[in-house]
Amino acid sequence: xxxxxxxxxxxxxxxxxxxxxxxxxxxxxxxxxxxxxxxxxxxxxxxxxxxxxxxxxxxxxxxxxxxxxxxxxxxxxxxxxxxxxxxxxxxxxxxxxxxxxxxxxxxxxxxxxxxxxxxxxxxxxxxxxxxxxxxxxxxxxxxxxxxxxxxxxxxxxxxxxxxxxxxxxxxxxxxxxxxxxxxxxxxxxxxxxxxxxxxxxxxxxxxxxxxxxxxxxxxxxxxxxxxxxxxxxxxxxxxxxxxxxxxxxxxxxxxxxxxxxxxxxxxxxxxxxxxxxxxxxxxxxxxxxxxxxxxxxxxxxxxxxxxxxxxxxxxxx
Length: 317
What we know:
The protein is mainly α. Helix content is about 75%, strand content about 0%. The protein is built from twelve helices and no strands. Helix 4 runs antiparallel to helix 5. The longest helix is centred in the middle third of the chain and has 38 residues.
């Protein structure tokens, strides 16, 4: 209970600090939506009316207090651009981002875990060298460059995948609708998996090599335990704590999305929404996404710490 209480206070304090910094940074940014810079034809009377409607004519401290009060009731405000509730705008974009990022994350962790362990078990062999070189290539590959190359080769030249978008011009009904969406999202997921695998494989390989140097691995092999059992009972349990930590830090990406990939492939997700909101100075949407990402980051850390306490009781000491 003491741990949960301290974690709760820490989360509240960090959210408060993040909200203050984010709110201050947004209001110090140049070319505000209500300043007339984005539309020189706006008169001063129109600007003053808009500022009055959205409460931007109040003192900055009062604006922050009102904004925090709305946040406590899960009211993220109204979009400057569309006039819709921010929660409604986010809810329309969130499912496709969640589906795409969860799929890519699961594939990335499964592939990375297998490649990292195999590379460590075959240390110094050709397979280890191949996996290491592949990981370095993946680590160094920019996502936007790979996306454009695959788009030119697989979409334009060979015609295997759609160039952009989430659905065909005349999408089928029923289960065909979701299969059509999966077909459109396959190429972005491939890019996300390829770019995300590299660093994780190298990390798992390094951890596995350290585990293989342990005394209990030598004793297990001396007792004639098979390699599959060593992987299942000795390597995987020791890899779980750092993997859980990485999974906890990956939670914000499930909602934040990929700004670059969603813009390149024309996917109407959270990443594209954040980019368009930043370009149009739609501050309520920007602040809503920032606070949700901050909340998920903190919650992800707390969940990872709680799971680590369960997996490894020595952390308590």
